[in-house]
Amino acid sequence: GENVEQHPSTLSVQEGxxxxxxxxxxxxxxxxxxxxxxxxxxxxxxxxDIRSNVGEKKDQRIAVTLNKxxxxxxxxxxETQPEDSAVYFCAASSFSGSARQLTFGSGTxxxxxx
Amino acid sequence: xxxxxxxxKFRVLKTGQSMTLLCAQDMNHEYMYWYRQDPGMGLRLIHxxxxxxxxxxxxxxxxYNVSRLKKQNFLLGLESAAPSQTSVYxxxxxxxxxxxxxxxxxxxxxxxxxxx
Lengths: 114, 116
Hints:
The structure holds two protein chains of two kinds. Chain A is mainly beta.
């Protein structure tokens, strides 16, 4: 099955700096790569996603890049703010059993220091 | 729309007790999922359903059973709870988009379960 590795597990940045989180996946047939943000005690919420036919996608301060050849994708947050502090999860969608499923990375705790 | 809801929010069980977690969605989604979240391990899929009356095993199905008698509801059962099942449980739902692509999963608020 699919295996997703996420790095780093913790990341601290100064407010205003950029943050980058990287994920690798194993199944070359994976075709959808979402990123979720989870604040303490809350549910995961989708912040951006990318499909395999696109190399890059941007939404204001957040961008995601995908390199299908190397099987890795990254989340970029620019001009970080304290409210960006949360756990971020990457995921990859692959076909297993009777449907496509999401396999999640282990998460990155991002702390934005004021 | 309420989106995805879960009942209960918190529960404490003793080893060997049973319980059922309820997930409901009002978005007419075909797919529903149960995950467990443990510290440092992300979200792991327990069971999922691709439609009313269907269920399938995910990555960590042992010790759990599920049922999807109605399209909007997905139940997760623990027949004999064990301390290893202490976790936060999330339900999610999604629809199957065009071309076989996998669309956004919408998560419920979670159930924090402690097994003593």
